Amino acid sequence: MVEKWEFRLGGVNIGGLKVEGLQVRHPRIKFGRAVIRVIGLVEEQILTEEEHLEANVINGVVKSDPSKDILKVCVVERHGARVGSAWALSEALGLRVGQ
């Protein structure tokens, strides 16, 4: 039996996607804080809102901030026709840990 969060080798086709490819890079700021666009979830709705929140930037990479409920979300096309991905930062997921 497969554990709930265990990755099954060969179960998902993610092509050449690597962790580094999931980084949210800031075009100008190397270190500091930046106002970023964030997907705001609306409770009990499929609709979302555009939010603008501050986030830390370390070595040019915008960081998630679980203490403020700002987390990275990634969608990966996994069926093999066009292996690709898209990522964004989202808030109001209610998660308190993550990267």
Instruction: Tell me the count of domains.
Output: 1
Q: In which order are the strands of the major sheet placed?
A: 1-4-3-2-6-5
Percent of residues in helices comes to under 10%
Approximate shape: globular
Main sheet properties: 6 strands, mixed
Structure overview:
- This protein has a 6-stranded mixed sheet, with no helix packed on it.
- Strand 2 (32-41) and strand 3 (48-58) form a beta hairpin.
- It contains no helices and 6 strands.
- It has one domain.
- It is mainly beta and 99 residues long.
Key phrases:
99 residues; mainly beta; 6-stranded mixed sheet
Briefly, what is this?
Helices cover 0% and strands 41% of the residues.
Question: How are the elements arranged and paired?
Answer:
Blueprint (H helix, E strand, L loop, with lengths): L23 E2 L6 E10 L6 E11 L2 E2 L7 E8 L6 E8 L8
